[in-house]
Amino acid sequence: MRAERLIVANGEPALAGWRAAASPVLRLLHLLGLTIFLGSILGSIVLSLGAPATGDPQNVVFAWQAIGRANAILTTPGMLLVGLTGVGLMMVERRKPWEEGWLALKIVVMIAIVANAYLLIDPAEEQLRQYAAALPAADARVMFANLAIRQQIFGAINLALIVLASVLGVVKPRMRRASSHGRMGGEEMPISNNAST
Questions:
Q1: Rounded to an integer, what distance in angstroms lies between the CA atom of residue 93 and that of residue 35?
Q2: N or C end of the chain: smaller count of CB under 10 Å?
Q3: Which residues pair with 38 in a beta bridge?
């Protein structure tokens, strides 16, 4: 009798109960990771823009040290939590990126976010911390200002990508794909978007 309850309609071993419990937990952790990630980024933006406005080099040094700590304690763990729970949700909800265009695009956007963060933003922030320590020197001030502008551009790009990934995850737009399975009579059929990630 119990074995019968473990069979779903299509004959596969039932993990339906486990999936039903895991999906909301993963979704909650996914949103928590996004909140930590975005919150730390917004805090870093306030520090990076506010400290130089004071005109005090010590405030700038403090701000960039705080940003470095926030990245280590909040930003990176938040980004990892978003990525891992996203993969978990994909598995639990049996989503297939090659069948759901929005999900494939979201994965590409998330890879771009990570690449931008580690290849452009992190090195720029490390250099900014070094220049901030030498700020009273005139040449360090010029280098700091130029590098700060570049870092703000990289950060703005990442913020836009994060917003795009979030919108894709919430809206789940139907995207048309040209494939032999999605065509009927020469017309492309929209790919279904059940459940959510």
A1: 22
A2: N
A3: none
Token readout for 93 is 């909800």
Mean pLDDT of 49-77: 86
> Cα–chain-centroid distance for residue 60?
27
Alpha helices by DSSP H, listed for 16-100, are 16-54, 57-70, 76-92
> 94 is in which domain, residue-wise?
13-172
3-state secondary structure of 188: strand
Domain assignment of residue 178, yes or no: no
Q: pLDDT grade, residue 3 (50/70/90)?
A: very low
Closest to 166 in 3D by CA, of 22, 33, 25:
33
Residue 141 lies in a domain: yes
Q: How far apart are CA 54 and CA 182, in angstroms?
A: 58
Q: How far apart are CA 144 and CA 167, in angstroms?
A: 34
Domain count, the chain: 1
Domain for residue 168, yes or no? yes
Kind and range of the H or E run holding 106: helix 101-116
**Helix-strand-coil split of the chain, %, nearest 5:** 75, 5, 20
Give CA angle at 39 (125, 102), nearest 5°: 95
> pTM here?
0.71
